[in-house]
Amino acid sequence: MLTVDFQRFRVTPGERVLDMGCGAGRHAFELYRRGAHVVAFDLDAEELAGVEKMFGAMRLEGEVPEDASAETVQGDALTMPFPDDHFDKIVASEVLEHIPDDMRAMRELLRVLKPGGQLAVTVPSWLPERLCWALSEDYHTAPGGHVRIYTRAELEAKLKSTGFRVDGHHHAHGLHSPYWWIKCAVGVNNDGNPLAKAYHQVLVWDIMKRPLATRLAEKALNPVIGKSVVVYVTKPARPSAPSGRPADREPADAL
Could you tell me where the Low complexity compositional bias lies (predicted)? Predict the structure, then answer.
């Protein structure tokens, strides 16, 4: 299940692309299939081990172009071990809401992206996320959970102040918000609840079959209750200085 729209965020074979906060690797796998040189980056070593195995399986099954490559790197989003201006494109999907110092993470993303390079950021949408927080304390207080709820305006303002140019946005996964509201209402760890199980089966069926009816329903629901908002930004050829910093100095965290 992809959140980034690869018709809008086009990846060319041979491009160097970072999946920052890759988690289980869903976007990293798609980038690999599209012929990129992929770096799947995350703090969780167990998640990365699974991603590494899948990369190997994809290669063995012939699912990726011969010239594509993929690797996993463990590390902290606030101090990434990559040179300046290193990646052609970056995906940061459902990760910034977990990071207390999100502005520092954004400055790192700006630092490692090439001038003219594109970044796709996805975070939970404000309304669906606000309802989840209201329905369940456990949803957002678990270790490593969400530390903030973004409005799109706030996210875009932070990205602009970091030095990015905002190019556009859309919402995704409108069918998934009701599932999470049900989970929050019955208990986020209550996997045996009949209603939650039934809705989950519908979502799995939709992901596997992609019938026209659910595609049309999701298209209609996305602008209203889409679970995620996706913002596309570009690093200008001459990035504007972050707010409060002189144009001829690098941010202190990027040195």
Answer: 236-245
